[in-house]
Amino acid sequence: MFAPLLTVLLLAQARPETIARQAEAARDADRVDEAIRLYRRGTAASPKWSEGWWNLGTLLYDRNAYTDAKVAFEKFVKLEPKAAPGWAFLGLCEYELHDYGPSLEHLQKALKAGLPNGDALAKVSRYHAALLLTRIGEFENALQLFAQLAVQGAGDHETIVATGIAGLRIAILPDMLPESEKDLAFETGHAIRESGARREAEAWREFADLISRHPAQSELHDLFGRALVSSDPDRALEEWKKELTATPKHVPARLEIAFEYLKRGQAEMGLQYAREAVEREPGLFAAHNAVGQLLIRTGDLAGGVAELEKARDLAPRSPETRAALASAYGKAGRSADAARERAEFMRLTKERDGS
What is the pLDDT of residues 2-13, one digit of tens each? Predict the structure, then answer.
């Protein structure tokens, strides 16, 4: 006769609101172990208690218990799939556990879902996503994230070194960088940051000084050219061509030259560099994009469309390629195809800018 009453009492004690009050009190009193025990008990009794999983995950994360915190955040995002902070913390746990593939996926998902720009969690998520993009050789995307961090005021030594590693196109995490290369990475990262902050004179001085001390170092002329192009495009072209002398196989410099000539309306001059980029990296969508746009400028509309279609197929989420292809289809009289690509351009641009 006492068993049903005991069951009722136990269930009442396990109600989330009761445990939440107890856990919150323990947390506020800095009794973290007790709070963790209470949240574990509450989530075991009520597996759909998303707030409980969140609080348990954050407490465990703060304790560096990343394996258990990961489990908590996995439960949380299943219940709250639109909650960007949950994906961010899941990605950060995975980073600490060296589970880098899922970590990058989940950090990017968090950033796309919309973490507030000034939020500390947004900054740490961008930083770690940039590290992981650098690690897999996606240097341009990594540098975009580092540029955003610079705008947000991130100027600590660690971030500047990581920016330099991405700029120098070294596909490693910062803790793998040899001690002998750390000064070069810091100085390169600082010059990139000065350029991104529109402190042109200082950036130019720093790049010129770096090149004078490291004349055979690859990437420096390319980076200097990018810093120069908005104010002195002729000198930027010189720097990119110097990069090809220093690093004959350099594809990014070829593409910078190709697009600069496209901008100037000198398609024939740019086509050589774009075609060389395709020969060296046939799977690079930007190279096909450059060849396609330059071919159209020379009057080869069919050839240009074919190259832009290759670029789209290689990178279907590139808004710029969609815009170029829409324009090309319009010139070819393919109005339905042009409308489709314009719609995709608008959708992808809105998606990217929203993130």
Answer: 343 333 333 344
